[in-house]
Specification:
Blueprint (H helix, E strand, L loop, with lengths): L2 H8 L11 E5 L2 E4 L4 E4 L2 H4 L8 H13 L10 H14 L3 E5 L2 H16 L3 E5 L8 H5 L4 H4 L9 E4 L4 H7 L4 E6 L2 E2 L5 E2 L2 H14 L2 E5 L14 H4 L5 E4 L10 E5 L1 H4 L15 H16 L2 H17 L5 E4 L2 E5 L3 H10 L2 E2 L1 E4 L2 E4 L7 H18 L1
Parallel strand pairs: 3-15, 5-6, 5-7, 7-10, 10-11
Antiparallel strand pairs: 1-2, 2-3, 4-12, 8-9, 11-12, 13-14, 14-17, 16-17
Helix pairs in contact: 3-12, 4-12, 13-15
This protein binds pyridoxal-5'-phosphate.
Length: 381
C-alpha cells in the first residue's frame, strides 16, 4: 500500500506531512512500518503527556470501553463528575464544561465572556494561536490563517505581548474578555512577563471584563507546574484546556469561577460527545499517571536540564518545564535531518524549534537528542 499516494488521492490537502508512517508507540518512542524507532519530542503536539500506550491508561480505557462509551449529556454519568472533582483540585477553578478539542474550549470561553459581561469586544495578543474554528480563529493572530475566511467575528483587538501601554489603549468598557496564552506556543514558546499579566488583572478590575487563560497547550504539567497560571500565582475567570488532558485521547474542557458559573444557564451551550464516559476516563487515567509518577516534577527537572543542554548549541533558548523553544538556523531542514536520524522535533518557523515531548522524558534521552542536534548543526553551518 502506497500511503503517500493514497493520502493525496483521498484526503483534503490541508496538511503537509513528514514522509514517515508511524504504526506503534511505547513511552517516548515511536516506530515506523519498517520497525525503525524514533525519539518523540513532539508528543502529537504537546498531547501524549504520559507517553505512548501507558499500561495504566490502556487498562483503564479498555475497561471503560467494555462498560460504557457514550450516552450524551441528556443523562448523568459518573466519570464526568469524577473528572470535574479532580480538575477542581488541580486547577483551583470551580465548575467545568467538557468538549472534544482545544478550539471548542476556546469557542465556549468566548461565548461565556459575551454572555456573562453583556459586552462584545475580544482582546487577544499579537502572535496568539487559539484554534481554527470561526471564533477561535477570530482571536488568532496569523494573517495567513485568517484571511481566506473573513469576515470573522468582530470586534477584536490585538495587543503587543508584554506592552502594558498597548493593553491600556485597547481594553475598554465594551471588552468581554482578554484571552491569553501564558506561554505562547505556536508562536515559538514565549512566556509572558509577570508584570504584564498583573496589568491585565488591574485592567479587569477597572473595566469588568473576564480574563481567559488559554491553557490548551500549557496545561497538565507541561510547564513544570500543573498549569502555567501557577507560575504567575493568579486565578483567571475562565481557563481552557485540551491536548494533554487525555494524553492523546480527544477531550477538551473549560473551567470557570463560581461567580461566572452563576451567570450561565441551561441550553446556552452544549456538546453531543463532550465529556462522555470514555473520554473522561482517559483524562482521569492521564491525571492518575501524572500524579503517581510525579510527572509535573519530572517536567520541571528534565525541562531545566534540556534547556541547559540546548544552550550549549543555541544562543536563544526559552520556555518552562518541557515546553521549550530554541533558535536554530534552517529549522525546517534540521527537523528533516533529525527525523532521518530517529528524533522527532517540530519547527514553528524557519529559525525556531519547539520541543514538547512526553513528560516522562529522561535526562539520558535529552542527551541523545542534543548530541544528534549538535552534529546536525555542524553539518548545516
Ligand atoms: N489554543 C492553544 C493555545 C493551542 O495551542 C491550540 C492548538 O495548538 C488550540 C487552542 C487549538 O486546539 P485544537 O487543535 O485541539 O483545536
Amino acid at each position: 500500500m502506497d500511503v503517500f499516494e493514497l493520502e493525496r488521492e483521498y484526503l483534503i490537502p490541508f496538511y503537509k506531512r513528514h514522509k514517515v508512517v508511524f504504526v506503534r508507540g511505547e513511552g517516548c518512542w515511536l516506530y515506523d512500518e519498517r520497525g525503525k524507532r524514533y525519539l518523540d519530542l513532539v508528543a502529537g503536539i504537546a498531547c501524549v503527556a504520559i507517553g505512548h500506550s501507558h499500561p495504566h491508561f490502556v487498562r483503564r480505557v479498555e475497561e471503560q470501553l467494555r462498560k460504557l462509551i457514550h450516552v450524551s449529556n441528556l443523562f448523568y454519568t459518573i466519570p464526568q463528575i469524577e473528572l470535574a472533582m479532580k480538575l477542581r483540585e488541580i486547577t483551583g477553578m470551580d465548575k467545568f464544561f467538557f468538549c472534544n478539542s482545544g478550539t471548542e474550549a476556546v469557542e465556549c470561553a468566548l461565548k461565556i465572556s459575551r454572555k456573562v459581561t453583556g459586552k462584545r469586544k475580544f482582546v487577544a495578543l499579537k502572535n496568539a494561536f487559539h484554534g481554527r474554528t470561526m471564533g477561535s480563529l477570530s482571536v488568532t493572530w496569523k494573517e495567513k490563517f485568517r484571511k481566506p475566511f473573513e469576515p470573522l467575528i468582530q470586534p477584536v483587538e490585538f495587543v503587543e505581548p508584554n506592552n502594558v501601554n498597548d493593553l491600556e489603549r485597547k481594553v475598554d468598557d465594551d471588552t468581554a474578555c482578554v484571552i491569553l496564552e501564558l506561554v505562547q506556543g505556536e508562536a515559538g514558546v514565549y512566556p509572558l512577563e509577570e508584570g504584564f499579566v498583573k496589568a491585565v488583572f488591574e485592567e479587569r478590575d477597572e473595566h469588568h471584563f473576564l480574563v481567559v487563560f488559554d491553557e490548551v497547550q500549557t496545561g497538565f504539567g507541561r510547564t513544570g507546574k500543573w498549569f502555567a497560571k501557577d507560575h504567575y500565582g493568579v486565578k483567571p475567570d475562565v481557563i481552557t484546556m485540551a491536548k494533554a488532558m487525555g494524553s492523546g485521547f480527544p477531550i477538551g474542557g473549560v473551567g470557570v469561577t463560581s461567580e461566572v458559573a452563576e451567570r450561565l444557564e441551561y441550553t446556552e451551550h452544549a456538546s453531543t460527545f463532550g465529556g462522555n464516559p470514555l473520554a473522561c476516563v482517559a483524562s482521569l487515567a492521564t491525571i492518575e499517571v501524572i500524579e503517581r509518577e510525579n510527572l509535573v516534577e519530572n517536567s520541571e527537572r528534565v525541562g531545566r536540564y534540556f534547556r541547559e543542554r540546548l544552550e550549549e548549541i543555541s544562543d536563544d533558548v526559552r520556555g518552562l518545564g518541557l515546553m521549550i523553544g530554541a533558535r536554530f538556523e534552517r529549522a525546517f531542514e534540521v527537523v528533516e535531518r533529525a527525523l532521518n536520524r530517529g528524533v522527532v522535533i517540530n519547527a514553528t518557523s524557519e529559525n525556531n524549534l519547539r520541543f514538547v515531548p512526553p513528560l516522562i522524558l529522561s535526562e539520558r534521552e535529552v542527551d541523545m537528542a542534543v548530541d544528534i542536534l549538535n552534529s546536525i548543526s555542524g553539518e548545516i553551518d
